[in-house]
């Protein structure tokens, strides 16, 4: 795959949320690897926010992108969800779904899958309504800054969630570790950090455009979380990678950690 590699500020002009959604979240038989990774995430999120006991008042989703799948289980465990992203176009895409506007992405297959995990496939509409009520703010974020949500002021969170965001935003391992520290700073003592990373990534495709991916190892993710003052409670590794035509990663990992009293 030759051509320009987009990164950093390029996201504001070059990232197309509709192309991204069609590539990685179609949830159809044509994208088997993408479906399996989405199911892996949905199962782990369900476990984390139900039997995993992670819940509370406020969850902050950092680097939400144009997606809501990561919040389908969380909306049952938190009173309020704050979503955030680096780009205006992703926030617009989220707002379209939240307001049920024409052209909003159809998340019903993912919603149904989560409702089946919860044991009641008949409550899909109720689930969507609950999520729309629970999301209270859409904010800009930049994980390369010490205060990722600045200038917005938010109360300390019970949980910070970030999936498939940091490895796209951080140019190197030092920036990744600093970003994890910034996210942990948003948590209450005893609060939870929940993250998922694509491992050994170099780039991923959105439409015909190639975007940067930071090559992370599972051990790098765990160590960064621990160095930020968190205890790793779970680290689930999945050997499935995205389709080669879409991404260069080798496996993924899903981490749940708890912030210590002095972090």
UniProtKB/TrEMBL annotation:
<dbReference type="GO" id="GO:0030748">
    <property type="term" value="F:amine N-methyltransferase activity"/>
</dbReference>
<dbReference type="InterPro" id="IPR025820">
    <property type="entry name" value="NNMT/PNMT/TEMT_CS"/>
</dbReference>
<dbReference type="GO" id="GO:0008170">
    <property type="term" value="F:N-methyltransferase activity"/>
</dbReference>
<keyword id="KW-0808">Transferase</keyword>
<feature type="binding site">
    <location>
        <position position="85"/>
    </location>
    <ligand>
        <name>S-adenosyl-L-methionine</name>
    </ligand>
</feature>
<dbReference type="Pfam" id="PF01234">
    <property type="entry name" value="NNMT_PNMT_TEMT"/>
</dbReference>
<keyword id="KW-0489">Methyltransferase</keyword>
<feature type="binding site">
    <location>
        <position position="90"/>
    </location>
    <ligand>
        <name>S-adenosyl-L-methionine</name>
    </ligand>
</feature>
<dbReference type="InterPro" id="IPR053384">
    <property type="entry name" value="SAM-dep_methyltransferase"/>
</dbReference>
<feature type="binding site">
    <location>
        <begin position="63"/>
        <end position="64"/>
    </location>
    <ligand>
        <name>S-adenosyl-L-methionine</name>
    </ligand>
</feature>
<protein>
    <submittedName>
        <fullName>Indolethylamine N-methyltransferase</fullName>
    </submittedName>
</protein>
<feature type="binding site">
    <location>
        <position position="69"/>
    </location>
    <ligand>
        <name>S-adenosyl-L-methionine</name>
    </ligand>
</feature>
<keyword id="KW-0949">S-adenosyl-L-methionine</keyword>
<dbReference type="InterPro" id="IPR029063">
    <property type="entry name" value="SAM-dependent_MTases_sf"/>
</dbReference>
<dbReference type="InterPro" id="IPR000940">
    <property type="entry name" value="NNMT_TEMT_trans"/>
</dbReference>
<dbReference type="GO" id="GO:0032259">
    <property type="term" value="P:methylation"/>
</dbReference>
<dbReference type="GO" id="GO:0005829">
    <property type="term" value="C:cytosol"/>
</dbReference>
<feature type="binding site">
    <location>
        <position position="25"/>
    </location>
    <ligand>
        <name>S-adenosyl-L-methionine</name>
    </ligand>
</feature>
<feature type="binding site">
    <location>
        <position position="20"/>
    </location>
    <ligand>
        <name>S-adenosyl-L-methionine</name>
    </ligand>
</feature>
<feature type="binding site">
    <location>
        <begin position="142"/>
        <end position="143"/>
    </location>
    <ligand>
        <name>S-adenosyl-L-methionine</name>
    </ligand>
</feature>
<comment type="similarity">
    <text>Belongs to the class I-like SAM-binding methyltransferase superfamily. NNMT/PNMT/TEMT family.</text>
</comment>
């Amino acid at each position: 795959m030759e051509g320009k590699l987009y990164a950093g500020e390029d996201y504001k002009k070059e990232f197309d949320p509709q192309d991204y959604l069609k590539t990685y979240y179609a949830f159809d038989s044509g994208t088997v690897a993408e479906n399996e990774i989405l199911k892996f995430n949905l199962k782990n999120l369900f476990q984390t926010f139900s039997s995993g006991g992670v819940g509370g008042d406020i969850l902050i989703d950092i680097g939400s992108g144009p997606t809501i799948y990561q919040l389908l289980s969380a909306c049952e465990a938190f009173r309020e969800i704050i979503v955030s992203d680096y780009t205006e176009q992703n926030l617009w895409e989220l707002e379209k779904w939240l307001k049920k506007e024409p052209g909003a992405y159809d998340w019903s297959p993912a919603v149904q899958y989560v409702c089946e995990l919860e044991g009641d496939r008949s409550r899909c509409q109720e689930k969507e309504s609950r999520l729309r009520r629970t999301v209270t703010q859409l904010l800009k974020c930049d994980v390369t800054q010490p205060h990722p949500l600045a200038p917005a002021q938010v109360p300390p969170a019970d949980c910070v969630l970030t999936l498939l965001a940091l490895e796209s935003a951080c140019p190197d391992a030092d920036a990744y570790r600093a970003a994890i520290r910034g996210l942990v700073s948003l948590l209450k003592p005893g609060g939870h950090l929940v993250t998922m990373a694509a491992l050994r990534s170099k780039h991923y495709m959105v439409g015909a455009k190639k975007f940067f991916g930071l090559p992370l190892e599972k051990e790098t993710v765990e160590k960064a979380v621990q160095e930020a003052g968190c205890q790793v409670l779970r680290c689930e590794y999945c050997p499935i990678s995205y389709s080669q035509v879409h991404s260069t990663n080798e496996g993924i990992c899903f981490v749940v950690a708890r912030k210590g009293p002095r972090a």
